[in-house]
């Protein structure tokens, strides 16, 4: 799958970029051509939509991103939909957990930490904007156009100032709750990563990156929790999900293959029949008639 952080680094002509250590800031016009594309992030992401629209889908939920809106995106895989061939101009900030934890500890006394809401498991957290935060987003754009890039110290200061303004807004307490949660749990639970992302065609290396683990640590923690190998668990989980989609939706078989995390129709059909003893078409027919 396409990793948005890696894609940005590899294509500086498309994704104008600035960086401070592992922090990556990008300013770009989205190059998406296909209506649907599978993407994933192994860092957190803040995006500000300048113009145009996209629709993001993850774990049965959808979010429409419109102009002059902002959101925080947790580490995850997802589907990005291109509506009506619209262009999309975006400012995006890729942010490691460690930076968020350090920031929270540094500015704890300045943040409204009372009466925080219960943390949700949604991939997207909407960022409520005011004129000050919008102005800060726009003030960063000229830095991408300078011949001589700004210093790392200046960029980090500008970003911290922006972030402090976002988190100081009482309407953004869900985001604050998530960041403070990271202080208690640096690595997300294996089950949380797997249950949210099994339906995407991620490799084990990609699952490990999203879970902030090395591949060996990911496999060890996975077996400890599920008592089986990641490969066996993923195949079984995806097949059961595909079977559910066959009965409960009108999606084509090809779309179900895509939406269940399988690479191609022939492989899916073969292992589906091995598990359920009938073809996907027959399973749908019998299921709908029963």
Automatic annotation (TrEMBL):
Q: Which domain of life is it from?
A: Bacteria
Tell me where in this chain the HTH araC/xylS-type domain is found: 188-286
Sorted alphabetically, the keyword list is: DNA-binding, Transcription, Transcription regulation
Report the PROSITE patterns cross-referenced here.
HTH_ARAC_FAMILY_2
Q: Which SMART domains match?
A: HTH_ARAC
Q: Name one Pfam family in it.
A: ExsA_N
A GO molecular-function annotation: DNA-binding transcription factor activity
Protein name per UniProt: AraC family transcriptional regulator
Species this protein is from: Neotamlana sedimentorum
